[in-house]
Amino acid sequence: MATLGIHKDFLLEFARLEKTVQKRVHEVFDKFREHRHAGLHLEKLENPRDPRIRTLRVNKFMRGVVLAPESGDSFLLLKVMAHDDAIAWALSHRATVNSATHGIELRDDIALERAAADVRYAAHVAEARLFAEVADKELIRLGIDPDLLPLVRNLSTEAHLDALRKILPEQQYDVLAGLAAGLSPEDVWRESVAAQAERAAGAAQQTPAGDELAAAMARSQGRIALLSGPEELLDVLSRPFDAWRVFLHPSQRRIAYHPSYNGPARVTGGPGTGKTVVALHRALHLARQLPDDAPDESVLLTTYTRNLATDLRHGLELLIPDEALRAKIRVVNVDALANQLVREDRGAPLSILTGQKEINSRWNALARRLGLDYSDVFLDQEWRQVVLAQDLRSPEAYLKASRSGRGTALSPLRRAQVWRAVEAFTRELRQAGEWTFLQVCAEATRLLEPRTDRPFRHVVIDEAQDLHPAQWRLLRASVAPGPDDLFIAGDTHQRIYGNKVSLRGLGVNVTGRSHRLRINYRTTHEILQWSTSLLDREHPDDMDGGTESLAGYRSVLNGAHPELRAASTKAEEIAELTKHIAAWMADGVEAGDIGVAVRYMQLGKEIAHALEQADLPVRILGGTHGSGDGISIGTMHRMKGLEFRCVAVAGVSDSVVPLPSALTPVEVDAQQHQEDRLGELSLLFVACTRARETLRVSWNGEPSPFLAAWRGQE
Ligand SMILES: Nc1ncnc2c1ncn2[C@@H]1O[C@H](COP(=O)(O)OP(=O)(O)OP(=O)(O)O)[C@@H](O)[C@H]1O
């Protein structure tokens, strides 16, 4: 059969078409399905830059653009656009082959010629040159076309490069953006070129001799998906918004489909860089590699909360239509896994204590009874972050334990007192037949450790930054150490549950197998830049002895700047927000595409009430209130893992964000106070980076101190 490729742009444009036009596109491209390419009526253009580019009629208003050489049997679906735009596009573009990756690139020659003149003019007044430090030889090695060198050499700022994003060949733009962000040519080679260049040789061997287009398409993974047959075309077109299923960026693909890692491997990256997407593809890769006799659920795909696990399950259903293959992967959050293991061992359900208020009040009562002058918050943190985190089981072990990360020193005498409190607390729980989830995790680990068999062959972890050491220990014990044992995706900038770990200390060594993603697919450049500026001065740990950074982190999309709105009272803020959301909807945004994030749910309920009064549909995330496709209102915590076209973050006022009750008082533990503050900042960052196109941040009275960085730039 002919080689059929589909360009990412084609799918994205198709996704935006009205349903009736989509249907018509289906009919036109059904010809491929019926192997009747001859009936496609590809029309030639007069004086095109590339004679292989043709157009075809979809309906009176729309045309498709296809790359189809005279000889060979390959077709590449490039665009589907309004009639005149399609003709103009087809006339000005040319398909070329990148000299480093050997994949196809599309060049807008006319726009590039114009841009070269503009940049030359701008260069007269600017002294600096963006790529002064990079030799021509390096640029060419990285795949920059020699005829583009004068243009590249004249660029003086990142903003100029940004302006060329849509007209430079995409692969070459990726390379230049990496260099402009400060990456070395070697880093750029490794991240953006190497995997494709290596694959080029392999792919060339699999394509029919003489069909150059087919060969180049095969080398263009991430931008062009080769369809194995007509069914795949139908499948891809049936879910056009889920481009991530077929168009992994080369930097994502090289991580997800690396044949085998010789031990734990990790992917990091800012929000929206596709870590979850990579984790899903890795789970698929691992499932495919299983031997035939591997039982179902040999691969574990896990995360921190139940809601996130539900999202992963949904993602897997989209990625792996084959039920038998999907059955090889078990998706469950860590606590639920622990609960199941312990429950099965005991033969009875466990009674689990989850409310933090209840836990604190028990610590409080206990401290009073024992006559100890420690606060409930202090005792609970000491238990979770020292005793459970290090799995300390005796007073001697606790006496010797490191308490790094805790801000108050404890003399041996005071440690003995605290241990007494911990013992009494856990004894009371035991007597009442109650557990906390962390205890369940520790118990599940204890059950697994002596076993020679392990429940899973591979474990893939998403949102890893939020896991507690007790949960890590359970995951470590769930799979035998060895190749492809653990695959870890996470971003410590988004740590919102205050759990810090050292992977190495937990026996998880990712040295040499750690990768960072830098391109954001979710959020516009403008929203990203603003949100990232909130974290400007923060360099969280990387869970492996170093610090994490957002260097080189960028978006491929552009849009409006975030809107920041002050109100004098809460009522005024809610009233303005309601009007604003109504305006979004009047502009055609669907209710299901709008999210409202708040720090505490009472405010969310008040907003829900106001929206309903204005006849706008709402749904409370995590609750039963409201209809399935209403405007989603939820806490900032609940927003993790979600994304919306439009996001409003409301109530970002000084007494609310950070939330005083979420901060350990300075006098209890100054260091913990700082950590909690950073957690609150990360929470705001997470909420803001859920927006795909539009972000609105509002407050009443004084704004949150976290907005100070932005206010300084006003
Ligand atoms: N290669 C790709 N092509 C198209 N869309 C992509 C690609 N990779 C990721 N996306 C989309 O970008 C968005 C963010 O992806 P994902 O949720 O995997 O990122 P993340 O790094 O896990 O984000 P976060 O850390 O904020 O949870 C999703 O809508 C996803 O479908």
UniProtKB/TrEMBL annotation:
Which EC numbers characterise this protein's activity in its record?
5.6.2.4
Q: Does the keyword Transmembrane apply?
A: no
Q: Spell out the protein name for this chain.
A: DNA 3'-5' helicase
Cite the UvrD-like helicase ATP-binding domain residue spans from the record.
248-556
Q: Where does ATP bind?
A: G269, G270, P271, G272, T273, G274, K275, T276
Species in which this protein is naturally found: Streptomyces virginiae (Streptomyces cinnamonensis)
Reactions this protein catalyses: ATP + H2O = ADP + phosphate + H(+); Couples ATP hydrolysis with the unwinding of duplex DNA by translocating in the 3'-5' direction
SUPFAM superfamilies (alphabetical): P-loop containing nucleoside triphosphate hydrolases
Q: Which InterPro entries is this protein grouped with?
A: DNA_helicase_UvrD-like_C, DNA_helicase_UvrD/REP, P-loop_NTPase, UvrD-like_ATP-bd
First-level EC class: isomerase
